[in-house]
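Students often ask what a 'structure token' actually looks like in practice. Rather than answer in the abstract, let us consider Phosphatidic acid phosphatase type 2/haloperoxidase domain-containing protein, a protein of 182 residues. Its sequence is given first.
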Amino acid sequence: MSLVPLDETYILYNPSDWASTVSAYLALAPILILMFYLSWFITSWELEPLLVAAGQLLNEALNKILKRLFKQNRPGPEPHGGGPGYGMPSAHAQFVAFAAVYLTLRIALQWPEPLQRNTALVLLVWAGALAIAASRVYLNYHSLEQVCVGWQVGCSCSLATTLAVVVGGRPSFGCRTGWFGR
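Now compare that with the structural description of the same chain:
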């Protein structure tokens, strides 16, 4: 089996295995989540997306600190075992857990009915987050333990950020209500 990097990244995967290919693309989720925060800010001119993105980046900084503290290697043999960087906790699991908790609480606290649409959206968010976390184990970048610890840290950081941002009153710059000043 020959592993190749996904174009424009260095995510190693087996192109003849469809689950490996899907897992490699799921690894791009943190980039898409940050693009979502930026787009939300540009279109709404609210301060909330910047504060949530800042919380997300602080969550990422905490991940780097914890990796240096735990110093646990990535699982298994090559290509990832003993590879660059430590594996505990999983940064991807921590990142998507943060986003999933934030979006769930924002939907629950601030979006009006219909309940069925909101429930479906929350289930979709969590299914995506779980698929991304599971993909890290499937690609052998992390052990289940590393993913679970990352998940717990991400959930905790998100809860703290959500309490500070959403419950604190959704601040905005007050300059305009949208990108075109409507």
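One point worth highlighting: The CA atoms of residues 54 and 161 lie 9 Å apart. Ask yourself how you might have guessed this from the sequence alone, and why that guess would often be unreliable.
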